[in-house]
């Protein structure tokens, strides 16, 4: 087997033992170079084992020296220059050749190491930049989520405030300003048909009612207050047998105190546990209207669903906010604009609500629909009704038989006059002025008054006033309807 020591040096390192002058035990140089013999092998082959002197002579003559073989190239590099090796003795030239190959390997290794290091640094820089961009995107996303959560909280608070204003008991001169804080100027309220309370006939649509604008919303709230006020007072019959008893005696569950003040509590709440948001920012949630007496006993409870829509922020405000422009006042104005509702749709079971009103007022009395037009108000009724002009001084234009029986005046005696004919020493003028003020605005209203009949007998009158329009589809209020009921004799 031929010995290519230069190739072996390239792969496995130098074999220095081949350059030594001492012979290797059992290794025969010369004609049989490359074969390894032992004493047993010589005996088996019949060859004569050379004497030690002969072996030494062969080594001095150069037998057994490795032949020069061109080393394989490393990475396409040319073989090292062997000029110095040719000028050197055989042993030194081989060592120099070996050193040159080692340096070439080291240079190639260093070059590959630098290349890999550069690639790693470049890859690391790309990774850092990518992570930085991802962090910025995540921070922006978290900021948007936080801003969206705050926006949704403000919008839910606005809807809760709308429900609260719908059942607010006190009359506030700034009620329109309070509504303007939570709804748009052209706000629309969509409701089912509500025949049990007053509403403008032109608000009726094929699917229900649509109340548009803040003034109409305030009027609708007044109508709802009159409706619920009828229930909360638990009115009793005006029969003579019960006229001498107190309201509590007429109805043990009455919410009215002896001086007529209402002791009931009305609340309309947004159930936040059921909030749901659509992709366009609309809010959907359940709501509950509840009336309870002084003992916290629920008299009426109605649940429903609502859907509120809001106007999104304008592109100009978005761009200015992204650039950091604008001051705190602009940001506050933008938030208030986002909080205001554009539309609110309430859905609930009107039949169930009407039945609860029927049971709440008194089971033995029919809770009749409220007239909204002049023709409806002129229909026969056992309620004491009086129709007046739509503006001050509210001249009497029509009375029915029940009103004549209660007040004692014939139609000929009261037509052309005002309801001042029913007032007396104990009639509260502040209450009368409040009723006239609401009626002048075309709002439904109610109050408990001390009135007097033709003979001068006092009776406590729970008066409800409703606006009326003509049946020709006009949006202008033409008359006012007054419904009288004797609650205390």
UniProtKB/TrEMBL annotation:
Gene Ontology molecular-function annotations: DNA-binding transcription factor activity
UniProt-listed Pfam families: PAS_9
Annotated InterPro entries: bZIP (IPR004827), bZIP_sf (IPR046347), PAS (IPR000014), PAS-like_dom_sf (IPR035965)
Biased composition (Basic and acidic residues): 95-111
Residue ranges of domain PAS in the record: 370-442
Residue stretches of biased makeup (Low complexity): 42-61, 311-322
Residue intervals of the BZIP domain: 96-148
Gene3D superfamilies: 1.20.5.170, PAS domain
Domain of life the protein comes from: Eukaryota
Region (Disordered): 42-116, 237-260, 310-339
Stated name of the protein: BZIP domain-containing protein
Species annotation: Chrysophaeum taylorii
